[in-house]
Amino acid sequence: MSNANLALKKITTEISGTVFSLPYHVARDRGYFAEEGLEIEFVKRNYGDRPPNITLIDDHRQVSSFGGTSLFEQGQSNLYRACEWGQVRRTYDSSRGGQVIAKRAAIASQAIIVRPDSPYNIPQDLANVPVGVNFHHGSHYIAIQTLEGFLPPEEIKIVHIEGGSQPKQFNRFVALRDGLVDAVAVMEPWITVAEKLGYKIIAEAHYVGLEIASPDLDKESFEAINKAIRRAVKDLQNDPIPYVK
Q: Can you list the domains of the chain with their CATH numbers?
């Protein structure tokens, strides 16, 4: 029997940056979810209000692992994806029983960068030098993962950059540019921006992401979602140009 003759099962998923959620957009627009008997509703993740001025926080316990109000924790979504170790931390903090169920389709990278006139040139130069990140997100854990290959733990210093009216990546770049910190971890497009402006890349590394689901998302539904996502990934691998919009 065709799924067109059946009522579609509705599932709500949080959508963050397109770089992480593009396969979901493609799968929805090409009707792959519907062909699996699913109606996927997108809700935009809310990172909450931030103070206008950029400040530094050196204690991760002062920063929520959810980065603001969580629609998932409020019961407004069944599924969301984010950076790997941040998701592991959020399952620990979840009051809703959210659990990691799969890897995210998108793989990202972050680079630790410094200003063009910086005296730092290699990872070992960053001993005891605060590196600006977003606590409990990809930049936090990839900065530690990158530096622990070169420095003992006691010499790795990570600080959270809070506030600013622009996206968090931009605010980290501004904090570096304006001398609030001497190194930050950023992802694209800010790695390319940094290179074009003559900033130095100290190290770069890849990391994966994880999907967290609520207890009421059944196995069969997620398998159907994943089937649609795999089709979308193949489309993107074959020709990403139609989706750059």
A: 3-50+65-106+210-243 (3.40.190.10), 108-207 (3.40.190.10)
